[in-house]
Amino acid sequence: MIKSQSRKVGDVLIAFLCLIVIIICLFPMLNLFARSLSDPMAIVNRRVSFLPVEPTLDSYRYVFADPSFSRSLIWTAFLTVICTIVSLIMTILCAFPLIYDTLKGKALINTLIIFTMYFSAGTIPNYILMKSLNMLNNPWVLIIPNCLSVFNMIILRSFLYGVPDSLRESAELDGANPFRVLVQIYLPLSMPVLATLALFYAVGRWNGFSDALLYLTSATQYHPIQLKLYNIINNLSSIDIAIQEGSAAGVPSASDGMKAAAVMFATIPIILVYPWLQRYFISGVTIGAVKG
User: Are 130 and 141 in contact (CB under 8 A)?
Assistant: First the structure.
């Protein structure tokens, strides 16, 4: 009884600490949201805390008024879905054969795959490679080069190792080929880890902009939302500097509210993805909790 009570106290303490950490992590987002809704003069006078002062939607109207920003958001959402699907397929096809002990050259393949985690060619050789493959200013340059993460593949491979071999062996005795074993046995059991990897791939693609900055120099119609946001913030900062130096008289001041609104506009969609995957995370936490 005493042990049970102490365990409850420990659970409450851990939950309280987690709540404190969540609140601390939400402070920057709340501040950004308040700045995006506050009047520009309130931001200039530093009267904005975690509540909007003199709320206004002008900053969001300016962002929505730019058709290229909305177009970039739709393109990034489509790109994220495609990249996530392709990356999951590549990760599964790479991890599943490596669980077979009968695979010839398995040790060498594992060594070569892990080698790429520690050593890479670098930016300039990658740029030369993309140029030689005629992939510059091509939307495929955002999909193919990063379609497989070795780290995520190792996570999936480790999970597949935990699936009892007896399930695979019984299916093989019934005449199932490796593809059927993968589809009907391993994939249904791997939904929690696949959902986690899907979130990793989706967040990585949604937040990525360096590859587009390097490889899509003239194809601006394929710029993802983060690169568009990067350009918007740089342009607004340049206008502010020009106004301060007096070289852009008559140009309206670009407030921090517009920058905050642009950041919120690009951040909220990926945050909304988590509730759809929450039940898979819960399943992933409880895997292995019951032994029998």
Answer: yes
66-286: what CATH class? mainly alpha
> 36 to each of 46, 66, 118, 254, 257, how far by Cα in Å?
13, 16, 41, 12, 4
Distances (CA, A) of 287 to 48, 130, 190, 229, 280: 45, 42, 10, 39, 11
Radius of gyration, alpha carbons of the chain: 25
Q: CA dist 279 to 151, 183, 192, 282, Å?
A: 23, 21, 8, 5
Task: Write out the two tokens for 50.
Answer: 């975690």
| Contacts made by residues 112-121, CB under 8 angstroms, sequence distance 24+ | 113/150, 113/153, 114/150, 114/154, 116/150, 117/150, 117/151
Alpha carbon distance 20, 24 (integer Å): 6
In the predicted model, residues of the chain with pLDDT beneath 50 are 1-2, 247-254, 285-292
- Provide the 10 A C-beta neighbour count for residue 43: 19
